[in-house]
Amino acid sequence: PKQEINACEPNPHFGLHSKEGRGAPEIDLLEAMPGSGTLGYGLKKPYFSASYQVAPGKPHDRPIEGKKPRKGQWYEKGLEYGKNATVNAFFYGEELSHKTKRDTYVADAVSANRPITDDHFQNYHTYRLEWSTTEGHKHLSWFLDGEKVFHMPPEALELTGAKMPDEPMHILLNTAVSSTWGFPAPCPPGCACECFDCQGSLPDPACSCGMPEGLCAMLPAFYEIDSVRVWQQADEPSHKVGCSTDTRPTAKFIEGHRHRYFDPYNDETQPLKPQVHGGGTCTKDKDCGRASACKDGQCKCQGEWTGPHCRAAKAFDDHVSEHP
Question: What is the DSSP letter of 265?
């Protein structure tokens, strides 16, 4: 398929650089697979995956999901797996279908699985990503409590000609259930798996038969985060702060394609929503952040705290690399 912003275009307009491909990479710090039992080549649940999603991917001779790839079939050059970590053979990526075959492509998931225990669901642990864009030292490395899980150098991507990510990216922390990440896999015998309901309250009671064992008992589920910390090297020119930098300008392209960057069906009217200062639903002061209060069912932020429930610090970037 043709990459919309590709290195073959001499005049891409919208302030973009000539003959420079642009993309939307994704780095997953962790995706947890709960449950019990042993899969395939001895991998035991629960475990978590650390991955880099890259496209366009390998279109032919792809590994069979659930089986390890044979030598030379998958990304392997320079990859390093930490103690107890193995190649993620349960998700190699997927075909992303679009209206035309020309625009349909395969996205690869280059990732590692690492077993975890009940303790990782009950107590705090430190998950870390090291992402270097320094020329000659580019790499992605994942760690759990200081122990290396997975290391990826640029040469690992030579299989498809992809590159190490250098686009400005934002951090997203959320709780979600993925239909391509073990749910349901496989669908139980005698169950159509066309609908899903933990309580069995939908008109068709068969909707509860496809729920993975033990999942309903875990709900409601909570994703508790103690802190998120981001460091960048002040003296490294490739480390920049902002969504549209001088090396990767984006602002004019987004402004020229505004409709792609917001969802009108959810009453969104602009690509970036304004920062919310209080207003989150509450019943008591403890529902709101430090030094803040619950008044008339809404959080009222005080001091250096902001966000719907006043739990985010009023921070700022002292070195911004925004480029118009």
Answer: G
| Residue 202 confidence (pLDDT) above 70 | no
Sheet holding 80-81, edge to edge: 80-81, 147-152, 139-144, 127-132
Average pLDDT, rounded, for the chain? 88
DSSP 80: E
Rounded to a whole number of angstroms, the CA Rg of the chain reads 22
Q: How many residues does the chain have?
A: 324
Give the pLDDT confidence of 70-101 residue by residue, as tens digits: 999 999 999 999 999 999 998 999 888 878 87
Half-sphere exposure of 130 (CA within 13 A, CB side): 16
Q: List phi, psi (to 5°) of 159.
A: -55, -35
Instruction: Answer whether residue 215 shows pLDDT above 90.
Output: no
- Please tell me the distance from the alpha carbon of residue 106 to that of residue 97, in angstroms, as a whole number: 8
Whole-prediction pTM: 0.85
Peptide bond into 324 cis (omega under 30): no
Q: Report the distance separating Cα 208 and Cα 316, nearest Å.
A: 47
Separation between Cα atoms, residue 249 and residue 168, nearest integer Å: 9
Three-class SS state of 281: strand
Query: How many alpha carbons lie under 13 Å from residue 215 in its C-beta half-sphere?
Result: 17
